[in-house]
From TrEMBL:
It comes from the Eukaryota. Keywords: Signal. PANTHER family: D-ALANYL-D-ALANINE CARBOXYPEPTIDASE, TRAFFICKING PROTEIN PARTICLE COMPLEX SUBUNIT 12. This is Tetratricopeptide repeat domain protein. Gene3D superfamilies: Tetratricopeptide repeat domain. Residues 1-28 form the signal peptide. InterPro entries: TPR-like_helical_dom_sf.
Length: 454
């Protein structure tokens, strides 16, 4: 991916989406270029498994989270399955990683395994890197563990968890192309190799578990692999087909009579998420008419209907159907939908009205609102209305408040280019200011030069 230089500002819709993510990923594309994931579904989806379940527990990292990646994983994974995953442990599967594209002030030393280090200890170190937001370093350590003698080819749960973490961290650190190439090592995830047969009948005549084949790969890995493999093989239709296959699996699971209420709700949530991902994939393919039809046919899952409505509005704006987006926006009564009104103004080019709307949201003191998202979109509107100095002040105030997410940094660097002949020095100073900020775990620390337009 290469940085865009033609258009100065982040698209208002993409700006909001980046900020809705719990950990905004580093982007090296131009602000109005088509992103790798227009809606950042990995972050927006409530059922996507986080890399770390509790990112605030510094010093409490034991590696336990890598055993709980999928709540519906077969219990057989805890036992010694006769599944040899040595094909995922080959050294030639993994690319060499470098920090040459990262500013010197933000570089950290890659962590290597100690001679006497155990698997539990290395997983704890990996968790610490994830907690801190060192995604590139975490990806490097995952590859090191996977190609070491610490892990057994039959340790299915840890192999898959580490491979998933490797791919996710590569994408989060702006190395999607590398992740797409490495995902090919999984080959066909729908093959019989990845399924375990139902357990035999217990002595009392009852089945211990449901009588159906179960997939041994965790659900988050399957979701991520579909997208990355479609990129790696250059076949977008492969991604659509993979999502439909998972959708059929989810539908079959939902109607099983032996399923408990909790498991059924998880499968319903997964099915709802797959519908949004399918629309997202169609948009990436450029088939906007099919995306609109698919979006209109989606059923709303009641617990998440507000989130689904908000996603739908964003998708409609991506498609270009502003009228439909406006109609749905007015139907959303939840406060979480209030942020869409100024976005509609921006989509229609009414930036003066959008400025008033963003200011109104900032003054509402609604805890459900993300002040950083609102402030950055306000700055975008201020710049479009010719208030360059005020836009700069708004963006710099966010940096001072230690809210240095990727799109904010890119926008501020662009503002520096527009308002000063010494933009290189200003951007270098921005790198230094961010390097001195305390670690919170909310952002990617291994940022590329392109994020700062250096």
């Amino acid at each position: 991916m290469s940085p865009g230089v033609s258009i100065p500002l982040c698209c208002p819709i993409l700006t909001l989406i980046v900020l809705l993510a719990s950990r905004p990923r580093s982007s090296t594309k131009g602000p109005l270029d088509q992103p790798d994931d227009p809606l950042n579904i990995e972050s927006l989806s409530k059922i996507s498994t986080p890399l770390i379940s509790n990112p605030v527990d510094y010093g409490m990292n034991t590696g336990a989270s890598f055993s709980t990646l999928d709540p519906l994983a077969p219990e057989e994974l805890s036992m010694n399955l006769e599944k040899d995953l040595s094909f995922l442990l080959r050294y030639d599967n993994y690319h060499s990683l470098s920090q040459v594209d990262i500013p010197h002030a933000l570089r950290s030393e890659f962590i290597s395994l100690k001679p006497d280090e155990s698997l539990i200890s290395s997983l704890g170190t990996l968790e610490t890197l994830l907690v801190e937001g060192h995604f590139l370093l975490a990806a490097y350590l995952c590859g090191t563990i996977l190609t070491s003698s610490l892990i057994s080819p039959t340790d299915v749960k840890h192999v898959f968890a580490l491979f998933y973490t490797r791919l996710a961290c590569l994408e989060l650190s702006g190395n999607t192309v590398i992740a797409a190439q490495e995902s090919k090592a999984l080959e066909d995830l729908s093959s019989t190799f990845y399924y375990v047969d139902p357990p035999t009948m217990a002595a009392d005549g009852h089945h211990d578990h449901s009588n159906y084949p179960r997939h041994i790969a965790p659900w988050p890995l399957r979701i991520l692999a579909i997208r990355l493999q479609s990129i790696g093989f250059g076949d977008s239709r492969r991604g659509i087909g993979g999502l439909y296959e998972l959708g059929l699996e989810a539908r079959r699971a939902i109607v099983r009579p032996d399923l408990g209420p909790t498991e059924r709700e998880i499968w319903k949530s997964r099915l709802s998420d797959l519908g949004i991902r399918t629309v997202n994939a169609l948009i990436e393919m450029g088939d906007l008419s099919a995306a609109k039809r698919s979006l209109g046919s989606l059923r709303k899952w009641k617990p998440d209907h507000i989130i689904t409505d908000v996603r739908t509005v964003l998708l409609l704006l991506s498609i270009g159907d502003v009228d439909a987006a406006r109609q749905l926006c007015f139907e959303i009564g939840d406060p979480r939908g209030a942020i869409l009104k100024p976005l509609l103004c921006m989509a229609e080019g009414r930036y003066d009205d959008a400025v008033l709307e963003w200011r109104s949201l900032l003054g509402s003191n609604d805890r459900a609102m993300d002040d950083a998202a609102i402030s950055q979109n306000l700055a975008v509107c201020l710049l479009y209305t010719g208030h360059l100095s005020e836009a700069r002040n708004v963006l710099e105030s966010l940096i001072q408040k230690q809210r240095s997410f990727s799109s904010l940094v890119f926008n501020l660097a662009t503002v520096y280019e527009l308002c000063s002949d010494k933009s290189a020095q200003l951007k270098t100073g921005l790198v230094g200011a961010i390097a001195e900020q305390p670690i919170t775990g909310d952002i990617n620390l291994d940022r590329l030069n392109a994020d700062f337009k250096l």
